[in-house]
Amino acid sequence: MLIHAETLDDALLALYPKLLDVTSKVVSSRGDNVELVGVLIEIEQPRARLSRSETRGRLFSSLGELLWYLTGKNELQFIKPYIDRYQDESEDGLTVYGGYGPRLFAQRGNNQINNVLDLLRQRPSRRAMIQIFNAEDIAELHQEIPCTATLQFLLRDDGLHLIVSMRSNDAYLGLPHDVFCFTMLQEICARSLNCEMGTYRHFVGSMHLYDEHRTHAKELISEGFQARKRMPEMPIGDPWPSIMVVLDGEQRARQQEKFDAGNLGVDAYWADIVRLLQVFFQSNVDTMRALRENMSFKGYRPYITALIDRRRDGE
């Protein structure tokens, strides 16, 4: 099945009705679900990676997961504030076996991101692949293993394309997070190569919707068309020094340290990312509002407002 869409929301609005129409059930360890086998989603505007839906617009957990990858580690304590369910996937209470960070940046001693960038700086090779799923992942029993198999980067005249292949994907919880994280990684690599972004393609062997999320999927469909608002373009130039500043800012925000993200010496794009992290770890509503007003990109404001409302409601 092919779904061609301009934005993430367009893809969700095309996918969910097809899943809801499936009648045969699949029984799995995580609950009953319906599935579509062999789904390819093409997104033309990968910067439109944030759902504008009231039910799926969870920017903060997506951002937290991306930064978790970029730490190069799989520590539970980092991701738990953003996505608490990872606690159920930890086998030792300290790490998450299937965490992508070590697999991206230290796979058997290989920094796969650097290897791909080095290769593509030499030539537009079809070998620019990153392996996430490993043979040993099913050689022994684990609480959870990666859903993602590979990432293939294709450098062509019109930009850097990314093809992600997944063995399995939760259409409601997992898919929006994966599209956010991988298109951000695509843009980071494109900036590292001084080129534009191409199309994002997301192939899934088993695209499934759990019974517990059927009502939520129907709610998204009922909301209908969403504004096609893209995230701003990542600044031109090497993004990695700024990413290091953001990761440091995340730790400071986690400790609720008071500081002005505008004074960190990074572009407004990255300063906004740090402000989002400050908002997430902030408990004072007035401070959250002040940070919201300081955002350079006003498109983040609805997500901050929604977080303030959820905090008020005790979520």
Structure description:
- The structure is a single chain.
- With 315 residues, the protein is α/β, with parallel strands linked by helices.
- The protein has two domains: 2-223, Thymidylate synthase/dCMP hydroxymethylase domain (Thymidylate Synthase, Chain A, 2-Layer Sandwich), CATH 3.30.572.10; 240-312.
- The chain contains eleven helices and six strands.
- The protein has helices spanning 8-20, 59-70, 76-79, 100-105, 112-122, 174-192, 214-223, 240-254, 268-280, 285-293, 301-312; strands spanning 2-5, 33-43, 129-131, 148-156, 159-170, 197-210.
- Strands 1-2-6-5-4-3 form a six-stranded mixed beta sheet.
- Residues 61-236 form the Thymidylate synthase/dCMP hydroxymethylase domain.
- Keywords: Methyltransferase, Transferase.
- InterPro entries: Thymidate_synth/dCMP_Mease, Thymidate_synth/dCMP_Mease_dom, Thymidate_synth/dCMP_Mease_sf.
Itemize the secondary structure elements and their pairings.
Elements lengths: L1 E4 L2 H13 L12 E11 L15 H12 L5 H4 L20 H6 L6 H11 L6 E3 L16 E9 L2 E12 L3 H19 L4 E14 L3 H10 L16 H15 L13 H13 L4 H9 L7 H12 L3
Parallel strand pairs: 1-2, 5-6
Antiparallel strand pairs: 2-6, 3-4, 4-5
Helix pairs in contact: 1-7, 2-6, 8-9, 9-10, 10-11
According to CATH, what is the topology of the largest domain?
Answer: Thymidylate Synthase, Chain A
**Total domain count:** 2
Distance between the amino and carboxyl termini: 37 Å
CATH architectural name of the largest domain: 2-Layer Sandwich
Radius of gyration: 19 Å
The sequence of SSEs as H and E is EHEHHHHEEEHEHHHHH
Quickly give the structural class. Answer: alpha/beta
Number of helices: 11
Name given to the CATH homologous superfamily of the largest domain: Thymidylate synthase/dCMP hydroxymethylase domain
> CATH class of the largest domain, anyone?
Alpha Beta
Which spans have pLDDT < 50 for at least 5 consecutive residues? none
- Give a short account of the largest sheet: 6 strands, mixed
Q: Which whole number gives the mean pLDDT?
A: 94
Helix content: 25-40%
Protein name: Thymidylate synthase/dCMP hydroxymethylase domain-containing protein
Keywords: Methyltransferase, Transferase
GO biological process, one term: methylation
InterPro entries: Thymidate_synth/dCMP_Mease, Thymidate_synth/dCMP_Mease_dom, Thymidate_synth/dCMP_Mease_sf
